[in-house]
């Protein structure tokens, strides 16, 4: 069964009670799947096996989050500045876990970089584009050059496509003072001498 709703100029397409008894929702470039989806004027409340995906074709990034429960608040209007900054239309989100966030972007050489972050719970600030992770934090960043693994009690991932000079992509902290960072360089193809 398909339902079409128009709310605040957004077109929501919802297919409810599919084969796996889950509901799906598409808002602009955001796809959401959950056991239950409640829609208000500017908020989605998703519960039970939640997955929300967003692909930003302008910034060439993608965001894929799974959680047990999630509440996502949306910007009322997308303005030119938001689009130019590569922001998603998610203003903020609270995720109860376990939580898994996968973020892909292109590095300065145009090669794909994939960051996978897991935690007990997380929040997302769409204005600052920061994911804050709490409890059993594990962040893995895979690029063509290396693999980076960070662990701690809390952490954050800056999801801006282009960081400023004083901005940090990752941060982890632990109450015990023991957080880990493990970097493993990948073998690079040998250049032939002629």
Describe the protein's topology.
Layout: E1 2-7, E2 10-15, E3 23-27, E4 30-34, E5 36-39, E6 43-56, E7 61-74, H1 80-84, E8 90-106, E9 112-125, E10 130-142, E11 146-158, E12 170-173, E13 180-185
CATH structural architecture: Sandwich
- Look at the helices and sheets and give the structural class: mainly beta
Largest sheet: 13 strands, antiparallel
Mind telling me the CATH class? Mainly Beta
Which fold does the CATH topology refer to? lipopolysaccharide transport protein A fold
Query: Into how many domains do the coordinates divide?
Result: 1
- Determine the number of helices (DSSP H or I, runs of at least 4 residues): 1
Fraction in beta strands = over 45%
Which spans have pLDDT < 50 for at least 5 consecutive residues? Answer: 1-20, 80-88
Shape: globular
What can you tell me about this protein's structure?
The structure is a single chain. The protein is an all-beta fold and 194 residues long. Strands 1, 2, 3, 4, 5, 6, 7, 8, 9, 10, 11, 12 and 13 form a 13-stranded antiparallel β-sheet that branches. It has one helix at 80-84; strands at 2-7, 10-15, 23-27, 30-34, 36-39, 43-56, 61-74, 90-106, 112-125, 130-142, 146-158, 170-173, 180-185. A hairpin with a 5-residue loop joins strand 8 and strand 9 (112-125). It has a single domain, classed as Sandwich (lipopolysaccharide transport protein A fold). It has 1 helix and 13 strands; from the N terminus they run βββββββαββββββ.
